Task: structure prediction
Amino acid sequence: MKIRREFASDNNAGIHPRILKAIQNVNLGHTIAYGDDPYTAEAIQLFKKHFGDNIDVYFVFNGTAANVLGIKALTDSFHSIICSDLAHLHVDECGAPEKYTGCKLLTVPSPDGKLTADGIGVHLHGFDFEHHAQPKMISITQSSEMGTVYRIEEIRKLAELAHSLDMYLHVDGARIANAAAFLNCNFREMIADTGVDVLSFGGTKNGMMLGEAVVFFRPELTSHFKYIRKQGMQLGSKMRFISAQFQALLSGDLWLKNAQHANKMARELADKISGFSRIQITQPVEANAVFAIIPKECIPVLQEKFFFYVWNETTSEVRWMTAFDTTSEDIDAFVAELKLQLE
Result:
């Protein structure tokens, strides 16, 4: 079978060889199940190395679970959650946040995928008024659904705003490594030191087979989370196979190298198409995504050879994602085909 690399999603990439090897390495003998194994203990210590000792970490299978259960731990059903109108919470989780938490999602128009204090302001009312869902959490995505990245000071301001109103700040970090690579900072500077309360830490989009982590930065708020995870059907019995992946990802600089490479490939793609007069790049290329408006008639022909998603059918805006295993040859082949279709 011909090896095929696409530009639809970094979820479509395979498993990094070092992570696949790590899974194989722990596939020996027996060990205690449900996370009471030494591999999970070591993985948790690695999270503390990256984020600080005063955290609690829980592993789950996927990003929707990390988001929903992390939010569930800090909210009641009469609360509301403020997020971007493009947030994965709102658009791509099939109503799971509202169904499972009972909370109301309040969205803010955000053409670049990022929330601002001014934009959020429209929902900051009705406190202590029993006829209104009570605002309790601001949720942002880093990097955003549009491939843009919150600067450290922007996150800090949102955290300060949330805390001034007795609210929490949640970060959907499905592509947090790409954001850190772009900002040239570490996770602690970007997340723990800015005042984030709960983080969904993504591994799948950065070379893992499966597995995400829910990280709490106020451990006094997580006394019941082990029960929430169990009820949420996310307590893995053979957790060592998730933990081993995080060990491989975080014990050295694999997380950073994977993210840097994916970001570099996106930038390379953007640079190589920037001179095409019939293509308009619509967002700053900061992480591993390129958003562009292209002639509508080119899309189905291109998709036959390089699958990708149409982001906006009305405007013919498409999304091209790169991954840790995208190559310059992949970019060149795609650009050559794109050029051919534009002629």
The mean pLDDT is 96. Residues 254-342 form a domain with the Aspartate Aminotransferase, domain 1 fold (CATH 3.90.1150.10). The two ends are 31 Å apart (CA to CA). The chain has two domains: 17-250, 254-342.
